[in-house]
Write a structure and sequence with these properties.
The protein is an all-beta fold and 116 residues long. It contains no helices and ten strands. The mean pLDDT is 96.
Protein backbone atom coordinates (compact mmCIF):
# COMPACT_ATOMS: atom_id res chain seq x y z
CA UNK A 1 0.00 0.00 0.00
CA UNK A 2 0.99 3.64 -0.31
CA UNK A 3 3.35 4.88 2.37
CA UNK A 4 4.75 8.39 2.78
CA UNK A 5 7.37 8.90 5.48
CA UNK A 6 8.34 12.47 6.34
CA UNK A 7 11.46 13.43 8.26
CA UNK A 8 13.81 16.34 8.91
CA UNK A 9 11.71 18.51 11.18
CA UNK A 10 12.88 19.98 14.46
CA UNK A 11 13.32 23.10 16.54
CA UNK A 12 15.07 25.99 14.81
CA UNK A 13 15.58 29.66 15.60
CA UNK A 14 13.99 32.36 13.43
CA UNK A 15 16.11 32.87 10.33
CA UNK A 16 17.33 29.28 10.38
CA UNK A 17 16.96 26.50 7.83
CA UNK A 18 15.66 22.96 7.67
CA UNK A 19 15.43 20.38 4.91
CA UNK A 20 12.46 18.05 4.98
CA UNK A 21 12.41 14.71 3.17
CA UNK A 22 9.54 12.44 2.22
CA UNK A 23 10.22 8.90 1.07
CA UNK A 24 7.40 7.34 -0.93
CA UNK A 25 6.54 3.71 -1.59
CA UNK A 26 3.64 1.67 -2.90
CA UNK A 27 3.06 3.60 -6.13
CA UNK A 28 4.98 4.73 -9.22
CA UNK A 29 6.45 7.89 -7.76
CA UNK A 30 7.65 9.39 -11.04
CA UNK A 31 4.11 9.39 -12.43
CA UNK A 32 2.71 11.75 -9.81
CA UNK A 33 2.96 15.41 -9.01
CA UNK A 34 3.90 15.76 -5.35
CA UNK A 35 3.31 18.39 -2.73
CA UNK A 36 4.00 19.57 0.78
CA UNK A 37 1.22 20.69 3.09
CA UNK A 38 1.32 22.00 6.62
CA UNK A 39 -1.08 22.32 9.54
CA UNK A 40 -0.41 24.97 12.12
CA UNK A 41 -2.03 24.82 15.57
CA UNK A 42 -5.68 25.84 15.33
CA UNK A 43 -5.58 26.20 11.55
CA UNK A 44 -6.64 24.21 8.53
CA UNK A 45 -4.10 22.21 6.57
CA UNK A 46 -2.71 24.33 3.72
CA UNK A 47 -0.80 23.62 0.54
CA UNK A 48 2.75 24.94 0.80
CA UNK A 49 4.45 23.79 -2.40
CA UNK A 50 3.96 21.42 -5.31
CA UNK A 51 6.13 19.94 -8.02
CA UNK A 52 5.14 18.28 -11.28
CA UNK A 53 5.98 14.69 -12.07
CA UNK A 54 8.47 15.00 -14.92
CA UNK A 55 9.47 18.54 -15.82
CA UNK A 56 9.72 19.55 -12.18
CA UNK A 57 7.74 22.74 -12.52
CA UNK A 58 6.93 24.16 -9.09
CA UNK A 59 4.40 26.33 -7.31
CA UNK A 60 4.32 27.90 -3.85
CA UNK A 61 1.92 29.60 -1.49
CA UNK A 62 2.70 33.32 -1.38
CA UNK A 63 3.86 33.22 2.24
CA UNK A 64 6.85 30.97 1.43
CA UNK A 65 7.87 32.22 -2.02
CA UNK A 66 11.56 33.03 -2.13
CA UNK A 67 12.23 31.12 1.10
CA UNK A 68 11.18 27.50 0.42
CA UNK A 69 12.24 25.24 -2.44
CA UNK A 70 10.57 21.96 -3.36
CA UNK A 71 12.51 19.35 -5.31
CA UNK A 72 12.33 15.66 -6.08
CA UNK A 73 14.59 12.72 -6.87
CA UNK A 74 12.60 10.17 -8.84
CA UNK A 75 15.42 7.62 -8.57
CA UNK A 76 15.09 7.75 -4.78
CA UNK A 77 11.30 8.12 -4.63
CA UNK A 78 11.86 11.19 -2.49
CA UNK A 79 10.51 14.72 -2.42
CA UNK A 80 12.28 17.46 -0.47
CA UNK A 81 11.40 20.83 0.99
CA UNK A 82 14.31 23.16 1.65
CA UNK A 83 13.15 25.84 4.08
CA UNK A 84 15.28 28.95 4.60
CA UNK A 85 14.73 32.18 6.53
CA UNK A 86 12.24 30.40 8.75
CA UNK A 87 9.70 32.45 10.68
CA UNK A 88 7.68 31.63 13.79
CA UNK A 89 4.56 31.50 11.60
CA UNK A 90 6.10 28.55 9.73
CA UNK A 91 5.61 26.44 12.87
CA UNK A 92 3.42 23.49 11.88
CA UNK A 93 3.32 19.79 11.18
CA UNK A 94 4.48 19.29 7.59
CA UNK A 95 3.10 16.52 5.41
CA UNK A 96 3.77 15.33 1.89
CA UNK A 97 1.17 13.89 -0.46
CA UNK A 98 0.50 13.64 -4.15
CA UNK A 99 -0.95 16.72 -5.85
CA UNK A 100 -3.81 17.07 -5.53
CA UNK A 101 -3.80 15.11 -2.30
CA UNK A 102 -5.47 11.79 -1.67
CA UNK A 103 -6.97 11.64 1.80
CA UNK A 104 -5.84 8.08 2.47
CA UNK A 105 -2.21 8.90 1.66
CA UNK A 106 -1.43 11.15 4.64
CA UNK A 107 1.59 10.08 6.68
CA UNK A 108 2.49 11.00 10.22
CA UNK A 109 4.08 14.31 9.25
CA UNK A 110 7.13 15.99 10.73
CA UNK A 111 6.97 18.79 13.30
CA UNK A 112 8.70 22.07 12.54
CA UNK A 113 8.96 24.57 15.38
CA UNK A 114 10.47 28.00 14.80
CA UNK A 115 11.19 29.71 18.08
CA UNK A 116 13.92 31.59 19.88
Amino acid sequence: QVQLVESGGGLVQPGGSLRLSCVASGFTFSNYAMSWYRRAPGKERELVARISSLRGSTGYVDSVKGRFTISRDNAKNTVYLQMNSLKPEDTAVYYCNKYPYTITWWGQGTQVTVSS
